[in-house]
Specification:
Elements lengths: L1 H6 L13 E7 L4 E7 L7 E5 L2 E6 L6 H6 L3 E2 L1 H8 L5 H18 L20 E21 L2 E4 L2 E3 L2 E20 L2 E6 L3 E5 L3 E7 L2 E6 L6 E4 L6 E6 L2 E6 L2 H12 L4
Antiparallel strand pairs: 1-2, 2-3, 3-4, 4-5, 6-9, 6-14, 7-8, 9-10, 10-11, 12-13, 13-14, 15-16
Helix pairs in contact: 4-5
The structure holds zinc ion.
Length: about 260
């Protein structure tokens, strides 16, 4: 089906009602207007050809599911024809494929080994999997803040009462390499390092640029933040290559997959 659709130079039918669609080209003083208009009077869907895609910008069928999903979206000719044939956009395909890969990583069905050299000493039967440079380690610490009516008389001498209240404060501890093996998550900074046994991890909160990690042998939450996007894997979808860029969720799923295989 895809191959057939590739050959079309025009949108073949209305993506909203599947009706006949006409291609209209009007000359202007500068440039021209190119658009598609659905010939079904109850639909009258319009798509306008822009420089960077074809924009779905009008329909009378505003209750239509496809309209709700794609209105004001700019897609390629191939994608619109795909949608008109009951398919989905490339972005959705990519999203679906990503979810499938994440699920395989999380269950340990898919094991990624993206590096074989890491700056740490590996233990027996330990395999390196991923190294992310330039990662910041932040820690949440409870800080007691004093405020209130105390008056400083001289250095170290206060008169009156003051109340203290604890609140968490995030501090940048160090920057370094974050290394994932099939057994450990290791942070190597210039001043501080962390050696985390995957079995000791209680929870991971994923973010686009990092993870927040809680573990059983440490009181404070640790944040590993940086450009995770620098790492990626290539997925193939219908003969097209897509880069699955890393984020906190990919990292979380990889960690969970390895942890599930440990006793
Ligand atoms: Zn239509």
């Amino acid at each position: 089906m895809t191959e057939k659709i590739e050959k079309y130079k025009r949108i073949i039918k209305c993506p909203v009602c599947s009706g006949t669609i006409a291609y209209i080209e009007k000359k202007k003083i500068i440039g021209k207007i190119q658009k598609y208009v659905c010939q079904n009077n109850e639909c009258s869907t319009q798509l306008v050809v822009k420089k960077d895609g074809i924009l779905l910008n009008f329909t009378k069928k505003s209750d239509n599911e496809l309209w709700k999903k794609y209105h004001h979206k700019k897609l390629t000719l191939r994608e619109w024809n795909n949608i008109a044939e009951g398919g989905i956009s490339d972005k959705e395909k990519e999203e679906k494929a990503k979810m499938a890969v994440l699920e395989q990583l999380r269950t340990g069905e898919l094991v990624l080994q993206l590096t074989d050299e890491v700056p740490i000493i590996l233990k027996k039967n330990e395999a390196p999997c991923l190294m992310l440079p330039n990662i910041q380690l932040h820690e949440d610490r409870m800080v007691r803040q004093r405020y209130g009516g105390a008056v400083r008389l001289m250095k170290g001498v206060y008169v009156g009462t003051s109340r203290g209240e604890s609140h968490p404060e995030r501090r940048h501890v160090d920057t370094g390499d974050l290394i994932l093996t099939d057994k450990r998550l290791v942070f190597v900074g210039s001043r501080k390092s962390a050696d985390i046994d995957l079995r000791k991890i209680l929870s991971i909160e994923p973010y686009s640029d990092g993870i927040a990690l809680s573990r059983s042998n440490k009181k404070n939450v640790e944040w590993f933040i940086g450009n995770l996007n620098a790492a990626s894997i290539t997925m193939k979808i219908e003969d097209r290559d897509y880069d699955l860029r890393f984020d906190g969720l990919v990292l979380k799923c990889m960690i969970e997959g390895f942890a599930s295989k440990l006793d």
